[in-house]
C-alpha cells in the first residue's frame, strides 16, 4: 500500500534527523514518547531540551486515521469521512541568539484514490538575519527543488513568502524558504512515487542545512542585549503559530495530541511593549529584511 510506504519512509527521515541533530548539538539527547490517537493511529514525539545548542527542539512523526471532523470537511470541501494523514514536523529553538530557528514539515493526506496530496516545506527564522546564511539556505532549497522541476523553487518560495506572513505585524516570520500544498500528478507532471521522492528529498536537505548553520554561528560571542532581542523575536513566532498556522489548526481540530502540536512554541518569549530597534542597529537591519519578495539567490 502506498500510504504505508510513505509512513515508513517518513519514519526513516525522523530517525536520521534525530541522530544527526544529536551529533550537531554535541550534548542533548532526544526523549521519545509514543502516543495513540483516540479514533485511530498515533505517533512518535521526540523532544530535546537544554542541549548544547538546542534549547528546545521537536522532531515528530505521526500517522493517524479515522473520521474527518465536519469543520475540516468544510475547509477541504470534501464529503468523505475516512482520512489518513502522515508526516514529519520539526521545530528547533536554539539557545544561541545568532543561530536561527528552523521549521520543516513534510506530509501526506489521503481520503481516497482521487482525493490525496503531499504538502510541506522548510523555512528559516533568524533572530538576526545574516545575508550569507540566507543565501546559503535558499540556494540549498533551490537545488533540492531543481532535481524535480525548475518551476518548483520560484513557485514554492513565493508561496512561503505569502504563507509565513504575520499580517497584523506586516512582516514575514523570517526569511521564508519553500512551502507547498496539494501536490499531485495533475499539477506537477510527476508520478505519485516521484512526488514522494521529492518529499523525501526535502526531508533529507534539512540536516545538512541546519548543521551548517549551527556550525557557522555557534561559537560567536553574544551579549545580554542579543538574548533580549532573541526573546522578542520568539514572540513573533508564537503569534504566527497560534493565529495563522494551518498545521496547528488541523491538529487541534482533529483531536491531535496537544503537547505534540504545541512543541513548536519556544520555552521562553517576551512581549515588550512597542519595542522599536534603534535605527542603524543590527536589530533594525534584520527587521528591514523581513519582507516578501527578496531574491536570495
Automatic annotation (TrEMBL):
**Leading EC class:** oxidoreductase
Q: Which UniProt keywords apply?
A: Heme biosynthesis, Oxidoreductase, Porphyrin biosynthesis
- Reading the lineage from the top rank, the first entry is Bacteria
Q: Which GO terms describe its cellular component?
A: cytoplasm
For this protein, the record's InterPro entries field holds: Coprogen_oxidase_aer, Coprogen_oxidase_aer_sf
Part of which pathway?
Porphyrin-containing compound metabolism; protoporphyrin-IX biosynthesis; protoporphyrinogen-IX from coproporphyrinogen-III (O2 route): step 1/1
Q: For this chain's UniProt record, which GO biological process terms are given? A: protoporphyrinogen IX biosynthetic process
Tell me its EC number(s), please: 1.3.3.3
Indicate whether Nucleus appears among the record's keywords: no
Key word Hydrolase present: no
Q: Which Pfam families match?
A: Coprogen_oxidas
Which Gene Ontology terms cover its molecular function? Answer: coproporphyrinogen oxidase activity
The UniProt subunit note reads as follows: Homodimer.
> According to its UniProt record, which protein family does this protein belong to?
Belongs to the aerobic coproporphyrinogen-III oxidase family.
Tell me the protein's name: coproporphyrinogen oxidase
Which source organism does the UniProt entry give?
Answer: Pedobacter miscanthi
The taxonomic lineage of its organism, from the top, reads: Bacteria, Pseudomonadati, Bacteroidota, Sphingobacteriia, Sphingobacteriales
